[in-house]
Design a protein that fits this description.
binds zinc ion; five-stranded mixed beta sheet; alpha/beta
Length: about 250
């Protein structure tokens, strides 16, 4: 569990499409979206990977803010069956009936299955089951209009069953819970996480060009970027990014 960073959610954006993936664990998501100049009215889609607290509880606040928003088109909220069921359950117990009714004008819940593709103009989203042994979780592959691809593996290690989907992605987002050299301190493998070196090795094997490491421990935030980048680069020939909260990566 982290207390000093919010690195479980992100926005993917180009000229015509804005996607929010996960929402962190609380109402900090609303500040972060403000600071990033992302208005809820301009979101084209919202995808929630799984039901853990650090990913879904912020979604309740996003829903709360959507009720008050000027949004005219319903926002598609994508998630697998357990995500949609859980979010609706929390909302039904925490929103007044009137608020819940108002929300239904602002969102449309879209339950997705393993391998399903949806399209937003020329952007393709493909959802895939990451085969987590803890909680059902989906990752997403986004294909941009020019054919460039970004695969988000969610917050657990890659499973070879998803090789076909993510191989040769231009961008790979991968959790890196800690450094390989610190594995005896944090025991990442016991809690279904991997290290910066593991992520780098995977990215090299999959032939990706850009590796984004996120979802880390927070005990060495000041030096994290340099340390994690250095360890991943020892085994990966592409470019490594270890974004701090609110950092933008341009491409
Ligand atoms: Zn998580």
């Amino acid at each position: 569990m982290v207390k000093k960073c919010y690195n479980t959610c992100f926005v993917l954006q180009d000229e015509t499409f804005t996607l929010l993936v996960d929402a962190g664990g609380g109402n900090t998501i609303l500040n972060r979206l403000d600071e990033a100049n992302v208005d809820l009215s301009q979101l084209d889609a919202f995808f929630i990977t799984h039901t853990h607290t650090d990913h879904i509880l912020g979604a309740v606040w996003v829903m709360r803010a959507l009720v008050m928003s000027q949004r005219t088109q319903p926002l598609p909220v994508y998630g697998h069956d357990e995500v949609i069921k859980t979010l609706q359950l929390i909302l039904s117990h925490t929103f007044t009936p009137g608020m819940y009714q108002a929300l239904m004008q602002k969102v449309v819940f879209c339950e997705v299955t393993d391998g399903q593709k949806v399209y937003h103009r020329d952007h393709e989203l493909q959802f895939f089951d990451i085969h987590s042994s803890k909680t059902k979780q989906f990752g997403v592959k986004l294909t941009f209009p020019d054919g460039e691809t970004l695969s988000c593996l969610g917050d657990e290690p890659y499973q070879p069953v998803n090789h076909e989907v993510v191989v040769h992605s231009d961008w790979l987002m991968c959790e890196a819970f800690c450094l390989y050299r610190d594995r005896e301190i944090y025991h990442p493998y016991q809690i279904h996480h991997s290290t910066a070196k593991d992520a780098g090795t995977l990215a090299e094997q999959l032939g990706v060009s850009h590796l984004v490491l996120y979802h880390t421990e927070d005990t060495q935030l000041a030096s994290r970027k340099a340390l994690y980048t250095d360890e991943a680069k020892q085994v990966f020939s592409g470019k490594v990014y270890v974004p701090d909260d609110m950092e933008s990566i341009e491409w």
